């Protein structure tokens, strides 16, 4: 009788703890979503002319003054929308890579997937004069080919996370070198256009590429729950995942493929903006704490980071700078801190 009572108490405590963790995940997601909306509104208000919230609403609905409607709809709305959508894509892609490879450094920009997408897009700009909605096609091809090369080279009776990361760094360095060579050999106008794009800026987004990112997100959102289940099983280890019925290599490939698609279309839309995919997942994890991990929370955190970076890029200085410069300023110290922390943990162990 006493044993049965104790088991009941344990079950009740487990259910209570699970409910508390679920509430925390929900609260974090809601808080991040509200932050995204507020930053979106702020980005519509700020500019050479500061607009009131009422003027922003009038511009969005078309009931305001003609000049205000033009400023909101034609100038500020596309950029603000691109920051949200690209941030969502990069945040989700980053946490997919980090979780499936079990390393916070395993983000698409650090592994070379974004570099591969950037090389293909730079080649299209420099060699073929391609622009507009066709750029994401080249970016997707470049990112996919890079990911396949990394996967094949890293394969040895399965894929080791550390082997994948090391090979990815090497392939990414090679892709960056190819990009530099293409830019150096290009005509001045083409080289300037490519360098502007390679710096990365939300302002480069076009209505066509913004629509493409939105479509990709809408298509992949329904698969998010399936990907989350795959990730939870893979995080238990390959052997345990197989015991639970998972097809380890297939699941890993599907998760990486989703991440490649997301980072490729994002890179083609705004250029290779670094560190968003690397920062989003760990920062979301800090907010979630013991509640676990969430792809949606990481995606929303990516949108928050990119929105803040773009607002700073436009308005922090007397002159606007590229969004990629701001993310680099904050991202580089984060990598240094993470490497120093890892070295300290290794010495302690």
From TrEMBL:
<keyword id="KW-0813">Transport</keyword>
<feature type="transmembrane region" description="Helical">
    <location>
        <begin position="286"/>
        <end position="309"/>
    </location>
</feature>
<feature type="transmembrane region" description="Helical">
    <location>
        <begin position="80"/>
        <end position="98"/>
    </location>
</feature>
<feature type="transmembrane region" description="Helical">
    <location>
        <begin position="25"/>
        <end position="51"/>
    </location>
</feature>
<feature type="transmembrane region" description="Helical">
    <location>
        <begin position="253"/>
        <end position="280"/>
    </location>
</feature>
<protein>
    <submittedName>
        <fullName>Iron chelate uptake ABC transporter family permease subunit</fullName>
    </submittedName>
</protein>
<feature type="transmembrane region" description="Helical">
    <location>
        <begin position="321"/>
        <end position="340"/>
    </location>
</feature>
<keyword id="KW-0472">Membrane</keyword>
<keyword id="KW-1133">Transmembrane helix</keyword>
<feature type="transmembrane region" description="Helical">
    <location>
        <begin position="137"/>
        <end position="155"/>
    </location>
</feature>
<dbReference type="InterPro" id="IPR000522">
    <property type="entry name" value="ABC_transptr_permease_BtuC"/>
</dbReference>
<dbReference type="InterPro" id="IPR037294">
    <property type="entry name" value="ABC_BtuC-like"/>
</dbReference>
<feature type="transmembrane region" description="Helical">
    <location>
        <begin position="162"/>
        <end position="184"/>
    </location>
</feature>
<keyword id="KW-1003">Cell membrane</keyword>
<dbReference type="Pfam" id="PF01032">
    <property type="entry name" value="FecCD"/>
</dbReference>
<feature type="transmembrane region" description="Helical">
    <location>
        <begin position="210"/>
        <end position="232"/>
    </location>
</feature>
<comment type="similarity">
    <text>Belongs to the binding-protein-dependent transport system permease family. FecCD subfamily.</text>
</comment>
<keyword id="KW-0812">Transmembrane</keyword>
